Amino acid sequence: MNIRPELLAAQTTAWQHLGWPGTWWTGAERVAIVAETRHAASCTLCGARRAAALPAGVAGTHDTLATLPASAIEAIHRIRTDSGRLGETWYRRLIGKDFSAAHYVELVAVVAITVAVDSFRAGAGLPPFDLPLPQAGLPSRTQPDRVTPGLAWMQVLMPDDWAPPVPDLYRSIPGPRERGRGNIHLALSLVPDAMIAWWDLFEPMYLRSAEMRDFHHEFRAVTHPQIEMLAARTAALNQCIY
Amino acid sequence: MDGDPTSGVAAADVLAAFAEAIVTDGDALPHARAAVVAALGEAAMIDAAAVVAGFNGITRIADATGIPLEPAKADETEEWRAALGIDSFAALKS
Hints:
The complex is a heterodimer of chains A (242) and B (94).
Chain A: H1 5-17, H2 27-40, H3 44-51, H4 70-82, H5 88-94, H6 101-123, H7 192-205, H8 209-213, H9 224-237
Chain B: H1 12-24, H2 29-40, H3 42-65, H4 71-76, H5 78-84
Helix pairs in contact in B: 1-2, 1-3, 2-3
């Protein structure tokens, strides 16, 4: 099968990166999040909650690999199996002293990368990647200073508030800024390295911002209208309102 | 746009079935994949799989962070969001 080199490289890099220490989780913990994301797909409790009108009304315990804190397990399972019905009340109950908003944001990125890479491999008829190899080292535990509350459930780094030494998450240098036009670019910005890892994977799978708006050229073997139809259909199937 | 987001899109039916098969990870996937290859070729199947898989991830980011849709984008997409029933999903959040 002939996969675009840029697409293949983005997938391989993103997958290997999941095994590296992140900002708030170790490499081993990030690999455990990947494994739990895969495991959640067959969780009996998640299946029952997904079928229920009110997921919170279904009691029970998750079928889990049990290597992560309970809050992380709940987050992974709900994001993997029923993300369209997540609400802020659920999020606020999860977040606490040992599971910060920043831990949560990095976890969301790891789950999303796992889902995206696994979905692509399955969709294209390719076998799933083996779990990434966990790399030794400690999380950097760094957070941007000038973060803003109120847009998302957690604080975000607004593009105009970015400054070194925070990584160039909006690709502001050398300019013009390549990321940050849409709110979705800001969603993971509390953990800049997580945001960068996601968008470095996603853009070769979809389109870069400039390519999205360039209707005079086609950049993929499917056209702009086909791409947008696929995106809309996938969002609807996931009950996503963004 | 007439409110139907698939209208006028080449091979919309096979692409929509492919998207559904990937998202639901169901038994229909091999057939749906073969139909896209037959209609549009292998390179298109790969790029279609990449778009669906990417949006399978990014929808989780949007929904798990509560990031809101920009007002201008909501206005632009009002018709086909209604056609797909997307706005009704907000009432299901808890």
